[in-house]
Design goal:
The longest helix is centred in the first third of the chain and has 18 residues. The protein has 151 residues and is mainly α. The chain has a two-stranded parallel ribbon. The two termini are 16 Å apart. It is globular. Helix 1 packs antiparallel against helix 3 and helix 4 runs antiparallel to helix 5. The C terminus is likely disordered.
Length: 151
């Protein structure tokens, strides 16, 4: 599961669709509608929100808006639009990690998008987040350690 801190406008078609599906799964987890993935490290930052379900719906709303910009047909009814806006933090180290991670994916999956983004020096974050100084997020390190252990 990858829930990007980067703005969804940077994702290629496969990436945006995957983000929508994975965030819907995360929404189900946070709403207690599934037992799988409930301890996934990517969910930790949402669990720290005052209202995790509202935070994930806010996150989904931005993915939906990006899908509209691309003329995709994501189901608007999957989002509870009654959410109260909030801010979660993301560190500068995490943002740098995600940019590198995305560029690696795009290099093989969407060369045009890779070339478009590889020369950028700054990237917007998802509007749910506020950028703060710091290293890679602890939950990311947990996820990476799990990936290495399972290889």
């Amino acid at each position: 599961m990858r829930i990007w801190s980067l703005h969804p406008k940077y994702l290629d078609a496969k990436g945006l669709v995957a983000l929508w599906r994975e965030t819907l799964l995360a929404k189900n987890v946070l709403e207690g509608k599934t037992i799988g993935y409930k301890n996934h490290p990517q969910l930790n930052r949402f669990k720290q929100a005052k209202n995790p379900a509202e935070a994930i719906n806010q996150y989904l709303s931005e993915i939906y808006l990006e899908s509209v910009n691309r003329n995709y047909n994501f189901d608007i009814q999957k989002i509870n639009w009654q959410f109260k806006k909030c801010k979660l933090t993301v560190t500068t180290g995490q943002l740098k990690f995600e940019v590198k991670h995305l560029l690696v994916k795009l290099k093989t999956r969407d060369v045009y998008k890779y070339e478009e983004l590889s020369s950028k020096s700054t990237f917007d974050i998802h509007p749910l987040f506020k950028l703060v100084d710091g290293d890679i997020e602890k939950w990311e390190l947990l996820a990476e350690a799990g990936n290495i252990a399972s290889r």
